[in-house]
Backbone:
């Protein structure tokens, strides 16, 4: 009846289900961190464990940090997991996974992460397309090689291929389930009890995809670098530079565009608006949207129209 | 490492597929239009066409019915089926048009005076019947074309050519009026929030029933200048102070800026649509029933 500690597991085989487990689920707002922890908590409860769960979701709606501690054992005292005692870390966003890496149990913890990046606004150094961003440089191979057991998979890509990118969390849950000693049917029952009716089918498929993902890699036991999922998905980096064109014959010189352009690309010249700082343009379209005379067009370089 | 990076800057870049080009929707021989520099009606026109584009409507299936006034003139610039009608009666014309041609998407563009004063009666009955048309009321708080007389929506203390010492009349809240009269969809947005306005209009067009959208527009020359509201940029920036993006339900509890108008969708309800009722009634009578 003591709290779980590192020593209790020292030297034991990684088969945590019998005696309980500490799971940390991390991500950003809107990814379904809490849905995973709910599923884990319900699953553990149905197995007869005592469960404690605590979360932080303050800035969730703004893409902020979300994390959730799930602890289950015969008896759980504290609702939060101490640093270095996480048995499984599930990261729905790559950099968030790195942020919590030090919470993993040294030499034993399992790391499961989606490789898809969601760059926070404050990591964008400039609003120009293609501008450098401040984001974690570590590759999945590096991280996977650093932890005891790690899987970095493109869960978002897998979920998108199944029809809904929002099911990425269930893909990761499926991946975790391959690690625990519970029947897939029990997991599916838990998921069906939690998700909205309309999404049961996609979540069922996502869970199976996540659970099946590991199978080939486990059999062949490839080097850590080969465990990384292939880089896939559409490149969302804009193709060309934005180009603002102004038709002086239609411009009536109302100054809306020159006043409201956030980058001050436009100035009035001889009674009509003119593009004087084309390189500063970020392609935000405000001038185009708010021109009452349809004189402004913003197009990407190399895009027709 | 995957390059499939989502950066928040990408989301704001706009440009759907296919990209919207306003010039494809305009009668280019009539451009540039007659409206004053900085007039909000130009932004409203562009946004309305953008919404039609987003709804995937073909030009031949779009009918724009306009009344009289600055707002009534914008129909002439649209390369679709357009109908310039009598003062205050675009909703009456549109009712006949929609009943005769239910396949058309009918959008009525009207002004605050056209819709609420001269055509006030037509508005309440169009709302009551709930026929599947979309009514855009461009509210610039003044009769711009006829010389800047006071309108039913002119704010308190504002100077117009008929209220030289400031307006003393109470104003209409057109959205509450439409809601009370029975419209199925009611919303309000400012021209400054063009993408939000576009989404609102697109939602109104898709709604099956009468949709009333109040577009808060700027009259720069006749109204803004007299009231020292600044020129076009100052007026469009000032829209932020005049509006608050909330729905009615939140409004009474908020003590700050009591005169600020809420924006957003206020009503979206499924009521019996008039065209459906008419056709069902006609079919029943033709087969010998009484239609009851």
Residues:
């Amino acid at each position: 009846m003591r709290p779980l500690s590192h020593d209790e597991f020292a030297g034991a085989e990684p088969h945590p289900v019998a005696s309980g487990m500490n799971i940390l689920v991390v991500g950003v707002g809107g990814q379904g961190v809490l849905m995973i922890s709910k599923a884990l908590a319900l699953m553990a409860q149905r197995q007869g464990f005592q469960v404690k769960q605590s979360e932080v979701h303050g800035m969730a709606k703004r893409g902020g940090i979300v994390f959730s501690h799930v602890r289950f054992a015969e008896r759980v005292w504290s609702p939060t997991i101490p640093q270095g005692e996480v048995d499984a870390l599930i990261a729905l966003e790559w950099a968030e996974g790195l942020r919590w890496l030090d919470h993993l149990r040294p030499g034993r913890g399992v790391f499961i992460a989606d490789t898809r990046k969601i760059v926070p606004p404050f990591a964008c150094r400039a609003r120009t397309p293609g501008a450098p961003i401040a984001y974690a440089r570590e590759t999945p191979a590096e991280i996977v090689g650093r932890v005891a057991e790690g899987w970095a998979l493109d869960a978002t890509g897998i979920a998108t291929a199944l029809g809904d990118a929002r099911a990425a969390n269930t893909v990761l849950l499926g991946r975790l389930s391959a690690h625990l000693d519970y029947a897939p049917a029990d997991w599916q029952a838990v998921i069906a009890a939690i998700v909205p009716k309309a999404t049961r089918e996609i979540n069922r498929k996502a869970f199976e995809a996540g659970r099946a993902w590991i199978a080939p890699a486990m059999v062949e036991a490839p080097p850590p670098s080969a465990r990384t999922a292939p880089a896939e998905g559409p490149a969302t980096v804009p193709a060309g530079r934005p180009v603002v064109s102004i038709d002086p014959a239609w411009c009536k010189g109302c100054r809306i565009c020159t006043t409201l352009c956030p980058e001050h690309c436009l100035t009035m010249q001889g009674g009509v608006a003119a593009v004087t700082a084309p390189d500063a343009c970020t392609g935000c379209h405000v001038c185009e949207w708010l021109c009452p005379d349809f004189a402004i067009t913003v197009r990407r370089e190399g895009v027709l129209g | 490492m995957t390059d499939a990076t989502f950066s928040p800057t990408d989301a704001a870049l706009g440009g759907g597929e296919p990209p919207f080009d306003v010039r494809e929707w305009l009668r280019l021989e009539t451009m540039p239009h007659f409206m004053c520099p900085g007039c909000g009606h130009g932004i409203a026109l562009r946004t309305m066409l953008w919404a039609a584009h987003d709804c995937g409507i073909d030009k031949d299936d779009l009918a724009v019915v306009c009344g009289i006034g600055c707002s009534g003139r914008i129909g002439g610039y649209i390369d679709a089926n357009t109908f310039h009608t009598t003062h205050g009666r675009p909703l009456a014309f549109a009712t006949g048009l929609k009943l005769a041609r239910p396949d058309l998407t009918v959008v009525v563009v009207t002004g605050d005076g056209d819709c609420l004063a001269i055509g006030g009666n037509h508005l309440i009955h169009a709302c009551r019947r709930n026929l599947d048309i979309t009514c855009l009321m461009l509210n610039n708080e003044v009769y711009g074309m006829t010389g800047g007389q006071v309108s039913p929506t002119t704010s308190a203390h504002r100077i117009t050519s008929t209220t030289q010492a400031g307006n003393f009349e109470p104003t209409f809240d057109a959205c509450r009026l439409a809601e009370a009269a029975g419209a199925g969809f009611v919303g309000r947005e400012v021209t400054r929030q063009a993408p939000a306005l576009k989404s609102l209009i697109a939602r109104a067009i898709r709604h099956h029933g009468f949709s009333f959208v109040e577009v808060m527009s700027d009259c720069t020359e006749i109204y803004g200048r007299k009231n020292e509201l600044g020129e076009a940029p100052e007026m469009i920036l000032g829209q932020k102070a005049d509006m608050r993006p909330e729905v009615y339900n939140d409004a009474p509890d908020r003590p700050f800026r009591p005169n600020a108008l809420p924006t957003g969708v206020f009503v979206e309800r499924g009521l019996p649509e008039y065209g459906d009722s008419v056709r069902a009634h006609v079919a029943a009578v033709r087969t010998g029933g009484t239609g009851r």
